[in-house]
Each structure stands twice: as structure tokens, then as C-alpha cells.
Design a protein that fits this description.
The structure holds two protein chains of two kinds. Helix content of chain A is 0%, strand content 60%. Chain A is mainly β. In chain A, the strands form two sheets. Chain A has a five-stranded mixed sheet with strand order 1-9-6-3-4, with no helix packed on it. Chain A has a four-stranded antiparallel sheet with strand order 5-2-7-8, with no helix packed on it. In chain A, a hairpin with a 5-residue loop joins strand 7 and strand 8. In chain B, helix 5 packs across helix 7 and helix 6 runs antiparallel to helix 7. Chain B contains eight helices and twelve strands. Classes of the chains: A mainly beta, B alpha+beta. At the A-B interface, strand 1, strand 2, strand 3, strand 4 and strand 6 of A face helix 5, helix 6, helix 7 and helix 8 of B.
């Protein structure tokens, strides 16, 4: 008997980290969705949307902007598109600050067809 | 045996067949209620169905002599029920695993995987398989136990349609992420910025602020996921999240090799190497039609006069729930005294009756037409399990 479709979303990661910046230079964000799965991200700065979808070398701020104490919020939804594995992973990479930094996270879909949610808040500090 | 006894015997075997098939189907239904295959967003047959293990070819129990290239999963189990009258429980099992997909690959995005070089193709598609089958008869039972490895040297490219589906999915997921983020985080983030500025250099105060922010953020996100407006948005976007399994098309070349040990009377002491083989399978795949060739050498350690070369082809039509194919294989013995060349022609139909359960029928002529059993007329069930491999939603 046909079953109704269920959409189940599970929070894989909800974290807050710091990233050290030079106060007057832009920084760059790249978000990679691994294990050949598909996903999309929303990015906001201090509560204001600044980008959506595929995030590749996104420039945050301009030269002269003071980004210190900025709150960079990333929310990524990942759906299974690779039938070879139930694993999922998202790596957030920031450059342009004091040093480049990667924030890698991994998870597994608990059921086929689920959506994994990764949420990362980055506090930009001097 | 007279005619009425013969008919009675055949009726008895058919009755047994129906009983066994019914038991298996009922077991499958009540064992797992979520078993009915739906076709709304089912990936194509080529992506869903792991081909039967190469070891089955060496064991001589393969439903098809030419298998299309493998779509690996981390672990897959195949069970063939191939007895002439399906009159007993399945006896032929294979387990196949892909070492590459047992581990996480955070550096590999779907767009990186659309085109593979030779090394990438080999590493990402190599599978190791172990299988067993009963290859003797009731008078002289022999258990065959074999191992094989296969890999695609060339594995085509992701189809244009698949790429479009994945790009559309990216956009839809980004849109949903923005909606969700706006629901829970805007005020929290603004408050956090203010609180951190007010805390100054007081690290103890900052830790408290961050702890409070983390727990409030998590709770707000969990609540937003249950919000009816958000759920309605996600349901509305489902059509953009269909057919996400990347379909590979184009030219492919697979290399397989394997070896079988024979154990007469299931005795470990009596085990000896039986058949071994190596073969190349070139193919050209589109979403619906695949043409597959094979060039194969099978050696027989027990009787080297039975070493053979095979060359053949198969054409397969697939859609979401079934596959129809026709194959022909020409066989030449390496024994110079063997004058007669042999061939096999078979038609094969597979239908997805339940989740992970395929009904398989094969009709045709096997290699030696003059020997008993050379008429191929098989009906069976193939159970293909790959743990949590893909959704049928």
C-alpha cells in the first residue's frame, strides 16, 4: 500500500566557534558539502541575510569595515544524492583573518531520504 | 514413473513452489511495513540495483552472463533463489563491499565526482565480493565458495539531467535554509553581538553568554523545524528534490576477476581451487538503454581442458521498476580437441515487486544444447539489500 511521504530533518551539528580577524579587512567563506551529497546554505551577518545556495569564496565585509564582534551564522541543509553512502559532511573554511581556519563536521543520515541540518555560528573576534 | 504419477509429482513441485514464494513475500511484507516500492522519485534501475556478484558467474549460477557496470554501495547483500522450481529456501548468497565508501570523504563534492580520471574511477568503484552457492546435485553435493574483485577503469560521466536536478536541489535547499534561519536566528544573533560588546574583556561573562546563546539557539532551531509554515514550504519544495541520485552515462569499462574453491560434501579438507577467471566489460549507458559487452577467460583448475573464452553482448532496457534484456555469448574452448563452439542466448526480465526484492525470469538456451538442463527457464526472486542505501520516498 503506498505510504505518505514523510520529510524528516535532523540537526547534525549546532555549534558556536570563534574566528580571529584583522579588524579592517574582508574575510572569505567557503562551504563544501562532502561525500558527494547535495546541499544549500544560508549565511547571515549580525542577523542580516547576505548569501544563499552554494557558498564559494564569499567576501564578507569590505576593506575598512570593522567586523569585530560580528556574528556570522551559517545554516546548511544536506540531502542524500549519493546512493553509495549514508554519510554526510560539511566543511566551513574562513580565510582573510589572522590565519585560515577550517571547521569540519560529519554525520550520517539516520534514515534514507532524511535531511541533515548543520548550523554553525562564528564569532569574529580580534 | 507413469504419466499420472509424473503429473502428480509436477503438481506437487508447483504447489511447493507457490508455498515457498508466498512465504517469502508474506515474510517480506509483515517483516517490514515500509516495503512497497513507489515510483515518484525512484532512481533509475541502474542506480538502484547492484548487479549480481562476479563470483556467481564463476559458480555458474548467474541469472545473466553479462552484468552491467556496478553501482557500488558501502555494503550490499544479494540472495538468489534460483532453483528450477523455487522449491527451497535461497541457497546462493553474496556480500559485496566497497572499501572507498566505508569511510567519509568530506573533500568530495557531487560536482567533483561528475568526471573521474582512471585512478579516481578505480578507487571509487572497486568492490570486493564473497559468495557461496550449491553447485553440485543431491547425489554429489558441492559447495562453492568464491571471492572476486571488480572495478570500473572508466565510469562515464554524470548525466546532464542529473546535474540539472542537483543544481535545482541546491537552490531549493538554500532557499529553505534562508527561511529557517530567518525564523530563529536574527534576534538571537543581534542580542549576542550586543551582549558580547557589553561583556568587554570579561571572559567568564563571555562564557556564560555563549552557553546561554547555544542552548537558546538549539531550542529555537528545533522549534522552527516543527513550525507549520516552514513544513509547508518544505513540502512545496519536494518536487525540486526528486531524482537526486546521480545517474552516470556514456562509455564505461569494468574489470573483474575471481576465484572459486569447491568443497565436495561440504568438507573443508576436500576443498580445492575450482574455476577462476578474469574479464572486461565495456558498455555504453544512457538512462534507459545500456549496451554491454564481455570478453572473458574462465579457467578450470580441476579440468584444464574446460578452460574457455567467452565473448558476448547484452542490450538492456530499464525504467524505474523493471529491466528487460537480451544477451548472447559465444564460447570457445582452449582445448584443441574440442571442435564445437558453444553459445548461450537468454532473455531476462526483472521486476521490482517489493523494496529490495526483484522477481527475475530468464528464458533461453545455455551453452550445450544437447545436455540436460541446457534449456534456461528460470523464475526466481533476488533479494538485494544494501543497508540504508537509498530512500524510496
Amino acid at each position: 500500500m503506498p505510504q505518505e511521504k514523510k520529510v524528516t530533518e535532523e540537526i547534525v551539528v549546532s555549534e558556536t566557534r570563534e574566528y580571529n580577524i584583522d579588524s579592517r579587512a574582508p574575510i572569505y567563506l567557503t562551504i563544501k558539502i562532502g561525500d558527494a551529497q547535495v546541499g544549500g546554505t544560508a549565511v547571515s551577518l549580525d542577523g542580516n541575510n547576505i548569501a544563499e545556495g552554494v557558498i564559494n569564496n564569499l567576501m564578507i565585509g569590505k576593506t575598512g569595515d570593522d567586523l569585530s564582534n560580528g556574528i556570522l551564522n551559517c545554516l546548511t541543509k544536506v540531502k542524500q544524492s549519493n546512493p553509495a553512502t549514508m554519510r554526510n559532511s560539511v566543511t566551513y573554511t574562513l580565510t582573510g583573518g589572522v590565519a585560515p581556519k577550517e571547521y569540519p563536521f560529519e554525520g550520517k543520515f539516520s534514515q534514507p531520504g532524511n535531511t541533515a541540518i548543520y548550523q554553525l555560528t562564528l564569532i569574529l573576534s580580534k | 514413473m507413469n504419466i499420472s504419477e509424473h503429473l502428480s509429482s509436477r503438481n506437487g513441485q508447483l504447489r511447493k513452489t507457490l508455498i515457498v514464494l508466498s512465504v517469502w513475500i508474506l515474510f517480506s511484507i509483515f517483516g517490514n511495513p515500509d516495503l512497497f516500492a513507489q515510483n515518484d522519485s525512484l532512481p533509475s534501475f541502474n542506480q538502484l540495483r547492484t548487479p549480481t556478484s562476479p563470483v556467481f558467474v564463476l559458480l555458474g549460477v548467474e541469472p545473466s552472463s553479462i552484468e552491467r557496470p556496478n553501482s557500488p554501495s558501502d555494503v550490499a547483500v544479494s540472495i538468489l533463489n534460483r532453483t528450477n522450481y523455487a522449491s527451497s529456501l535461497p541457497r546462493d548468497f553474496a556480500i559485496e563491499m566497497s572499501p572507498y565508501w566505508l569511510f567519509s570523504h568530506p573533500e568530495l563534492s557531487w560536482s567533483d565526482d561528475t568526471l573521474r580520471n582512471v585512478l579516481q574511477s578505480i578507487v571509487r568503484t572497486v568492490t570486493i565480493s564473497v559468495a557461496t552457492a550449491q553447485i553440485g546435485d543431491e547425489q554429489q553435493p558441492v559447495t562453492g565458495l568464491g571471492a572476486s574483485v571488480r572495478t570500473s577503469i572508466v565510469s562515464g560521466t554524470t548525466s546532464g539531467e542529473s546535474k540539472d536536478n542537483l543544481i535545482r536541489a541546491q537552490k531549493e535547499l538554500g532557499k529553505q535554509a534562508t527561511f529557517l534561519q530567518n525564523m530563529y536566528s536574527a534576534n538571537l544573533d543581534k542580542q549576542l553581538k550586543l551582549d558580547l560588546r557589553n561583556a568587554g574583556e570579561d571572559s567568564a561573562k563571555k562564557d556564560t553568554i555563549l552557553q546561554k546563546y547555544n542552548s537558546e539557539k538549539r531550542a529555537a532551531l528545533e522549534m522552527a523545524l516543527k513550525d507549520s509554515t516552514y513544513i509547508a514550504l518544505v513540502q512545496k519544495g519536494q518536487s525540486s528534490l526528486q531524482d537526486l541520485a546521480a545517474v552516470r552515462e556514456g562509455f564505461m569499462l569494468e574489470l573483474s576477476a575471481g576465484i572459486v574453491m569447491n568443497y565436495p560434501n561440504n568438507s573443508t579438507d576436500s576443498g580445492k581451487v575450482g574455476r577462476y577467471g578474469v574479464w572486461l566489460t565495456p558498455s555504453y549507458q544512457t538512462r534507459d538503454i545500456s549496451t554491454v559487452g564481455v570478453i572473458r577467460f574462465i579457467g578450470n583448475n580441476i579440468d584444464p581442458s574446460q578452460n574457455v573464452f567467452d565473448i558476448g553482448g547484452r542490450i538492456i532496457y530499464t525504467n524505474d521498476k523493471y529491466a528487460l534484456s537480451l544477451e548472447g555469448v559465444f564460447r570457445k574452448s582452449t582445448n584443441a580437441k574440442e571442435k564445437k563452439d558453444l553459445y548461450r542466448i537468454a532473455g531476462n526480465f526483472e521486476y521490482l515487486v517489493l523494496k529490495n526484492v526483484w522477481l527475475q525470469t530468464t528464458f533461453g538456451r545455455d551453452y550445450t544444447s544437447s545436455t540436460n538442463g541446457s534449456l534456461i527457464a528460470q523464475l526466481g526472486l533476488a533479494f538485494n539489500f544494501s543497508k540504508d542505501r537509498f530512500s524510496y520516498d
